[in-house]
């Protein structure tokens, strides 16, 4: 059977696309800036500062860096009266810099007091993160949780009820463990932990709604540090409720491990239509910018086709045909340049984030990949003629030779962007 007959008798291969979301939609605002979460909104990228919030200038600068990198909301620690007192000044500094990114207050243990004692802090924040595992114990728990919801209602702020298995409500867990021990076939301890996480989140959300919160202003998260644990918990959480869900491993780790663990867990859930905001909780390596976690979160969404943030640069991995490192250096230079320009280009050149660039290292796949890109270059490999054909919009446009191939291609990319996307602007 030839290929034509085979094609005529086969069905088209189903395209792989992420499943649609089924959650409610929340709104996080600051001034004219509105960030929608859930429903038909794009999956949002979040991050968190690691500065001391008492250092208002340092925290504001890092918030700006994270926002410019693509973080659509930034969470800051509010753990002491001194930190709470500085939140309005952080907001003021950002507003002066023209950065309207919404700020999320991360509260633990004493949030009920801080929101009450520092009304300017409560007003300056755009959302409150509440951990039901450490708002109080015994009869204090519901009362102090209620005080935080009261502040959210007073200032018209949404809340994220964020359960964490490292600080899970021990009374709830103990009760579920007791119930489990009486089953004819007890669950595994980990399954009871899953149930405790989900129960804590949903019961807290329902309590917030009973206290007056709109269901559309409640976001949930159940964070764990294991990939399979996260998948199991969020699948069940999504099945049981329609609140918007925030995804992320609670401690992903650093470097390669943190990147791989977060990418694996989040990609599986996002492909299934689970998750409305994400954070990649990376431990920065020495000297690494905090913005790296934003870059990885954005790349996860872009790789799945859920969002487009920056132009994509395709580059071959290299092999025995590519002993020169020129294509590696050029690919990195172009990628770094495009990413650095995006805060300006996003407004100056609408649509530039859809640009596809190819920087290839030899003749095997180089011309083909370059033709598939908007603009591409196929550099000479080992033993090949010292020439680099450049393809623009699928057609060979020119051939570069000599010592200045990299700088000449860089200029070609800049001209292409200005001509194609500048016309749109």
TrEMBL record:
Q: How is the cofactor bound?
A: Binds 1 [4Fe-4S] cluster.
- Indicate whether 4Fe-4S appears among the record's keywords: yes
Q: What class of enzyme is it?
A: oxidoreductase
Provide the residue positions that the database annotates as binding [4Fe-4S] cluster.
316, 319, 362, 369
All copies of domain IspG C-terminal, residue ranges: 313-414
Q: Record's superkingdom? A: Bacteria
Q: Which Pfam families match?
A: GcpE (PF04551), GcpE_C (PF26540)
Tell me the keywords, alphabetical order: 4Fe-4S, Iron, Iron-sulfur, Isoprene biosynthesis, Metal-binding, Oxidoreductase
Which cofactors does the annotated protein need, by name? [4Fe-4S] cluster
Pathway assigned in UniProt: Isoprenoid biosynthesis; isopentenyl diphosphate biosynthesis via DXP pathway; isopentenyl diphosphate from 1-deoxy-D-xylulose 5-phosphate: step 5/6
User: Region annotation Disordered: residue ranges?
Assistant: 1-22
Catalyses: (2E)-4-hydroxy-3-methylbut-2-enyl diphosphate + oxidized [flavodoxin] + H2O + 2 H(+) = 2-C-methyl-D-erythritol 2,4-cyclic diphosphate + reduced [flavodoxin]
Q: Where is the composition biased (Polar residues)?
A: 1-11
Domain spans labelled IspG TIM-barrel: 35-296
Q: Cite the EC number.
A: 1.17.7.3
Alphabetized GO MF terms: 4-hydroxy-3-methylbut-2-en-1-yl diphosphate synthase activity (ferredoxin); 4-hydroxy-3-methylbut-2-enyl-diphosphate synthase activity (flavodoxin)
Q: What does this protein do?
A: Converts 2C-methyl-D-erythritol 2,4-cyclodiphosphate (ME-2,4cPP) into 1-hydroxy-2-methyl-2-(E)-butenyl 4-diphosphate.
Q: Say which family it is in.
A: Belongs to the IspG family.
Concerning NCBIfam families, the annotation shows: ispG_gcpE, PRK00366.1
Q: What is this protein called?
A: 4-hydroxy-3-methylbut-2-en-1-yl diphosphate synthase (flavodoxin)
Naturally occurring in which organism (per UniProt): Ottowia thiooxydans
This protein's gene is called ispG
């Amino acid at each position: 059977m030839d290929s034509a007959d085979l094609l005529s008798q086969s069905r088209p291969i189903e395209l792989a696309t992420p499943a649609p979301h089924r959650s409610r939609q929340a709104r996080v605002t600051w001034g004219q800036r509105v960030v929608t979460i859930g429903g038909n909104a794009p999956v949002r990228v979040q991050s968190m500062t690691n500065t001391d919030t008492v250092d208002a200038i340092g925290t504001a600068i890092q918030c700006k860096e994270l926002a410019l990198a693509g973080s659509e909301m930034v969470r800051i620690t509010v753990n002491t009266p001194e930190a709470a007192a500085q939140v309005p000044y952080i907001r003021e500094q950002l507003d002066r810099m023209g950065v309207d990114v919404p700020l999320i207050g991360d509260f633990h243990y004493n949030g009920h007091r801080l929101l009450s004692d520092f009304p300017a802090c409560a007003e300056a924040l755009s959302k409150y993160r509440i951990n039901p595992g450490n708002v109080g114990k015994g009869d204090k728990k519901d009362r102090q949780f209620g005080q935080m919801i009261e502040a959210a209602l007073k200032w018209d702020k949404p809340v994220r009820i964020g359960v964490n298995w490292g600080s899970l409500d021990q009374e709830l867990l103990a009760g579920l463990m007791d119930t489990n021990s009486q089953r004819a076939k007890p669950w595994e301890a980990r399954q009871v932990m899953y149930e405790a996480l989900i129960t804590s989140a949903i019961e807290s959300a329902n309590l917030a709604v009973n206290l007056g919160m709109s269901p559309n202003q409640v976001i949930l998260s159940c964070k764990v540090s294991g990939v399979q644990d996260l998948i199991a918990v969020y699948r069940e959480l999504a099945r049981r409720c329609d609140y918007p869900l925030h995804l992320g491993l609670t401690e992903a780790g650093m470097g390669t491990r943190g990147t791989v663990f977060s990418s694996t867990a989040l990609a599986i859930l996002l492909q299934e239509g689970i998750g409305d905001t994400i954070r990649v909780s990376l431990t920065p390596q020495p000297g690494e910018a905090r913005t790296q976690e934003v870059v990885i979160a954005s790349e996860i969404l872009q790789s799945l086709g859920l969002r487009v943030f920056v132009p994509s640069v395709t580059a071959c991995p290299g092999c025995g045909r590519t002993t020169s490192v020129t294509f590696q250096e050029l690919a990195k230079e172009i990628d770094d340049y495009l990413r650095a320009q995006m805060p300006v280009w996003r407004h100056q050149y609408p649509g530039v984030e859809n640009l596809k660039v190819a920087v290839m290292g030899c003749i095997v796949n180089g011309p083909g990949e370059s033709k598939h890109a908007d603009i591409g270059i196929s550099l000479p490999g080992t033993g090949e003629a010292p020439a680099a054909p450049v393809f623009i919009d699928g057609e060979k446009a020119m051939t570069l030779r000599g010592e200045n191939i990299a700088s000449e291609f860089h200029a070609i990319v800049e001209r292409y962007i200005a001509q194609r996307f500048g016309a749109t602007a």
